[in-house]
Design brief:
With 402 residues, this protein is α+β, with helices and mostly antiparallel strands. It is 27% helix and 19% strand. It folds into 2 domains: 88 residues, 2-Layer Sandwich (Phosphorylase Kinase, domain 1), CATH 3.30.200; 240 residues, Orthogonal Bundle (Transferase(Phosphotransferase), domain 1), CATH 1.10.510.10.
Length: 402
């Protein structure tokens, strides 16, 4: 497929916005309704796999059934034939803005902005959870921040509540944001998304993850065995936000707050009551740090929607600098309503094979071999031998996902 191609006599492809292991995302013109859209097309190399076509169709159905300003809108799903192959595609709302992943390249976010983004993501998740849908891939790359609010995108691996996760021994997800219960193959539940949201907020507030893990194996073990490091000091961050974050990272799903509670608590901190948060999304007018890349300086502008509770200037003036909408409106970036990755990485969506599932929910890290070698062996205590601790999972096998 190339720029200028016409799909099913309706969608004229423009620039390529992203390419992943499963699909390619294009900017396109809907020549019937006269609007720009994002078209996600299954990769031609995978067109012969009916399971992948089914996955894209399931993504479209899951997202199309959700109605919330913080969830990307799905317009259409269909198939077409090219060079003798049947290709599936999904037509979605074209989101103009920046991903949270892009914003975090310069380090942590101002806590007020992080809290406001977190409140809106939680509200979007609450809407999905009420409909019985679990996203299963909440991460900065799937959170878009636009001039009109936050959008949660890419329901490509979503599942219904109660579905058995990893029943075939393979879990599809992002290692850095994989909840402990997903590693152990438990039923799908909303708490999985809450755990990932907690990690997203931790990274936004601290500029780093709560443990030192750089490989898929280290990340999987950390989720199951390692207690997250306490959130570093964030001047001005309310104690209730810190407590909520700690609860979100609990190892046991039942100990985590609901997405609705997170939306209500964080929304209250930033001045958005629940009824407003569920009805509309709004981002304050703030300037973001300069990205550490060779590109022109970009700023994010958020225009509060009509009827949203006004945020006081003093509340935002401590560590953010207001920017006029006119000054920043000229530099938006166009981003597809889905995230893609060119190669597998700890932050990319991958297939993780579950092996040797732990039999207990330990929350401390297994001793590292180096730590054992650094100390002399202690004398064996008298009496019966204590039971052997549960072995950590073996390194998971990883196959490229989207």
């Amino acid at each position: 497929m190339d720029r200028g191609d016409l799909i099913n006599g309706r969608y004229r492809l423009g620039e390529m916005l992203g390419r992943g292991g499963m699909s390619v995302v294009w900017r396109a013109d809907d020549e019937v309704l006269g609007r720009e859209v994002a078209v996600k097309v299954l990769s031609a190399a995978l067109a012969d796999d009916p399971g992948l076509r089914q996955r894209i169709r399931a993504e479209a159905r899951a997202a199309a059934g959700l109605r919330h300003p913080g969830i990307v809108e799905v317009f259409d799903y269909s198939e077409f034939t090219e060079a003798g192959r049947t290709l599936s595609y999904v037509v979605m709302e074209l989101v103009e803005g920046r991903s949270m992943d892009d914003m975090l390249t310069a380090g942590r976010l101002p806590w007020r902005l992080a809290v406001l983004i977190g409140a809106q993501v939680a509200a979007a998740l609450a809407a999905a959870h009420r409909a019985g849908i679990v996203h299963r891939d909440v991460k900065p790359g799937n959170v878009m921040v636009t001039a009109t609010g936050v959008k949660l995108v890419d329901f490509g691996i979503s599942a219904t509540v109660g579905e058995l996760d990893g029943q075939d021994g393979i879990v599809l997800g992002t290692p850095a944001y994989l909840a402990p219960e997903r590693v152990t193959g438990q039923p799908v539940r909303p708490a999985t998304d809450v755990y990932a949201l907690g990690l997203l907020l931790y990274r936004a507030l601290a500029g780093q993850m709560p443990w030192n893990a750089t490989t898929v194996t280290q990340m999987v073990k950390a989720h199951v065995y390692t207690s997250p490091a306490p959130l570093p000091a964030v001047p001005g961050l309310p104690a209730e936000a810190r407590r909520l974050l700690e609860r979100s990272l609990a190892k046991k799903p039942g100990d985590r707050p609901s997405s609705g509670e997170i939306a209500e608590t964080l929304g209250g901190i930033c001045g958005l009551p629940p009824q407003t948060l569920m009805r509309t999304a709004a981002v304050p007018t703030v300037a973001l740090p300069l990205l550490r890349r060779r590109r022109p300086r970009q700023v994010l502008v958020g225009a509060a929607a009509a009827g949203v509770l006004a945020l006081s200037a003093a509340w935002w003036s401590l560590d953010e600098v207001p920017v006029s909408p006119q000054a920043a409106a000229a530099t938006p970036t166009s981003t597809p309503a889905t995230s893609t990755s060119s190669s597998p990485s700890p932050s990319a969506t991958v297939f993780v094979r579950v092996v040797d599932r732990p039999t207990s929910e330990k929350t401390t890290a297994a001793p590292a071999p180096e730590a054992k070698a650094a100390h002399p062996a202690a004398p064996k205590p008298a009496g019966p031998k204590p039971p052997k601790p549960a072995k950590p999972p073996k390194p998971p096998k990883v196959k490229p996902g989207k």
